[in-house]
Amino acid sequence: METIQTADAFKALIEDIKKTEGYRDPLAFGIARIDLGQLNVNKSLQATYPIINWDENFGSAAIFIKALSEQGIDVDFTQSEVVCNVNLDFLRSCLNAFTPYADEAYGDAHKNIQVVSALYNQLVEHGMVEGEYKVTFIFDDAPVKSVEAAYLKLYAISLAKVGLREICLDGAFGALPNVAWSQGQPIELEYLREFEIELKLSGEYPHVDFVDKFPRFLQHIIPADNTRILDTSKVRFGAQLAAGTTVMPGASYINFNAGTTGVSMVEGRISSSAIVGDGSDVGGGASILGVLSGTDGNPISVGKNCLLGANSVCGIPLGDACIIDAGIAILEGTKVGIYPEQLAKINEVNSGVTLNGEVFKGKQLAGLNGLHFRQNSLTGEITASRSTREIKLNADLH
Predict the structure, then answer these.
(1) How many CB atoms lie within 10 A of CB 127?
(2) Rounded to the nearest 5°, which phi and psi values hold at 259?
(3) What CATH fold (topology level) applies to the domain 7-174?
(4) pLDDT tier at 110, thresholds 50, 70, 90
(5) Which CATH architecture fits 217-397?
(6) Are 326 and 310 in contact (CB under 8 A)?
(7) Active site residue 267
(8) Does pTM surpass 0.70?
(9) Which of 29, 30, 360, 379 is most open to solvent, judged by the fewest CB atoms within 10 Å of its CB?
(10) Which CATH fold topology does 178-215 show?
(11) Catalytic residue among 81, 148, 188, 267
């Protein structure tokens, strides 16, 4: 592309690009650094995006697509995702187009220009390996086909560009390779097996932190200032943590496509697809079941100001201000007794819901507000009553 001198000329260029037959704006896009396989150099192991764009910055996307076409790479707009190699010529074309905004490249408004500029300077100085940098476009929220698209979607979740459970992650497990992780870097297991003798004899066998398809949250995401994660292994990349969340060590864990929507204390397990609301406390060893853990595929949300007692199990969605006492499991099939006086109070705080009866399955109580689940220590009976307290966390801890 020729050097663009004015903002008006830039806008005119964008309009011309978008008139191309079949052109459409991507749902998401970004430039990533790719960790390639040690044996299979054409295999992507990890994609690191300094900036991702989700339903935004379509002008930058148009420039990227135009720059690719000048390298003889035509983006197929009929595909759900497209991944293309980035080279110096691509970056130079982008910089020519972005010239009117060059002085603003390091402000918040033009992060994509900053990425292109920083990468261009880096490659001019240090060179590059073929396939080490790629640009990814997602045009449809369809099942994932590539490592690059999987990471782009996981970034979108962890950066709260999209809500939990709002985008399609089907295919991610198949797209992502299972690798050994050493100090944040992925290593092919096949490489370790093939060179095990040489690596061990030379003292170069890496310290393997863990083996998984997913990296850890903190390898890619900078949390909010008032968010605390006391053990990096406790949060998987693709989780979403609202500002003010504290994740304690020990029995805590937050899986991908799961997390918190407000200030929360997490000392238990938030399984994949589970969501915890503002002001709630997941007590030590407590477990919120995932969609593969006996919930009939129904994802669980825990409302605001709830308390899951130590070693409790939550197998149904909870409304606001609910309590599950320590050590008991509330599942869809759990029989729960509610006495008439308490039933009236529960009906009162749940508009549009009228419960009738004395014994209910847990599934019938799903999503209701103000429930306090207890177990009678003499009879073993599980009962629910109207929760008389709001669960408020210690503000000094968050």
Answers:
(1) 9
(2) 155, -150
(3) Alpha-Beta Plaits (3.30.70)
(4) confident
(5) 3 Solenoid (2.160)
(6) yes
(7) yes
(8) yes
(9) 379
(10) Wheat Germ Agglutinin (Isolectin 2); domain 1 (3.30.60)
(11) 267
